[in-house]
Amino acid sequence: MLEIRPNCEYCDKDLFPDATDACICTYECTFCRDCVNNILHNVCPNCGGGFSPRPIRPKIAHRDKTSLQYQPASNKRIHTKYSTDDIQKFCKPLINTPAKLR
Ligand SMILES: [Zn+2]
Ligand SMILES: [Zn+2]
User: Fold this and answer.
1) What is the Cα–Cα distance from 39 to 35, expressed in whole angstroms?
2) Could you tell me if residue 102 is inside a domain?
3) For the whole model, what pTM was predicted?
4) Ligand 1: centre distance to CA 64 (Å)
5) Who has the most CB within 10 Å: 30, 39, 67, 100?
6) What is the distance in A from the centroid of ligand 1 to the CA of 40?
7) Ligand nearest to C-alpha 91
8) Could you tell me the distance, in angstroms and rounded to a whole number, from the CA of residue 62 to the centre of ligand 1?
9) Bridge partners, 24 (sequence order)
10) Which residues surround ligand 2, an ion (CB under 5 A)?
11) End-to-end alpha-carbon separation of the chain, Å?
């Protein structure tokens, strides 16, 4: 199940569960749209993969035992362990390669 993380790993912006500007990679690394577009250029600094918009989990249960009421969002803030410099160096060679070819 997707871990819905509370913040952008890079700039620490709050990303509430219903945020429409939250982006995730396949490992659930979570960043805001601004960072993905302007700093990471669609390269996850942790794995090198691309990003997709994070789906929004319903607030109320439309089916038994589903929704944020039963599987709440995480409140554990995550911060990237890499420096801005390191991220630039890591992402740069991958920026011009589409995610499906990396
Ligand atoms: Zn951000
Ligand atoms: Zn990743």
Assistant:
1) 5
2) no
3) 0.95
4) 34
5) 30
6) 10
7) 2
8) 31
9) 30, 52
10) 25, 27, 29, 44, 46-47
11) 25
Q: Side chain identity at 99, as an amino acid letter?
A: A
Rg (CA), the chain: 14
Q: Is residue 72 part of a domain?
A: yes
Using the mean position of ligand 2's atoms as its centre, give its distance from the Cα of residue 27 in Å: 5
Domain assignment of residue 68, given as a range: 22-94
Residue 76 main-chain phi, psi, to 5 deg:
-90, 110
- Residue 36 is assigned to a structural domain of this protein: yes
C-alpha 36 to ligand 2 mean position (Å): 11
Exposed, middle or buried, 62 (CB in 10 Å: 0-12/13-18/19+)? exposed
Convert the pLDDT of each residue in 5-42 to its tens digit: 999 999 999 999 999 999 999 999 999 999 999 999 99
Q: What is the tens place of the pLDDT at every residue in 41-70?
A: 999 999 999 999 999 999 999 999 999 999
Ligand closest to CA 90: 2
Number of independent structural domains in the chain: 1
The CA-atom distances, in angstroms, between 12 and each of 9, 64, 72 are 6, 33, 20
Look at residue 9 and tell me if it is in a domain.
Answer: no
